[in-house]
Design a protein that fits this description.
With about 100 residues, this protein is mainly α. Helices cover about 80% and strands about 0% of the residues. The chain folds into 2 domains: about 50 residues; about 50 residues.
Length: about 100
């Protein structure tokens, strides 16, 4: 009984160490991905046009959002994005349905 308990403790310790190592590996991978992507994201945010008005407070932002929705631009933008997404899904579905054609 005592031998079985010692084996069980050893096995559990090994599994815990392996899980800890796996978690560290995942965090390390995520860190390196973030470091690799940061310059590209930062460059995009710098390059964004400064021509758009930045609201001074939350009330101004609410008015801008309300105007955007009432003007119909919101519905047109959503329809355009959904159309692009639908086209993409259809193309991908066809490529998976017929993998030899690629």
């Amino acid at each position: 009984m005592m031998k079985l308990r010692k084996e069980l403790i050893k096995t559990m310790a090994a599994k815990k160490a392996r899980a800890s190592k796996d978690i560290r590996s995942v965090f390390l991978y995520l860190f390196f991905c973030a470091v690799a992507v940061f310059p590209y994201v930062h460059a995009q945010s710098i390059a964004e046009p400064a021509g758009q008005l930045v609201p001074r407070n939350l009330g101004d932002l609410k008015l801008q959002i309300t105007d955007y929705e009432r003007s119909g631009r919101y519905q047109r933008d959503v329809a355009a994005i959904l159309g692009n997404a639908e086209a993409y899904v259809l193309v991908e579905r066809l490529s998976y349905a017929n993998p030899q054609s690629s």
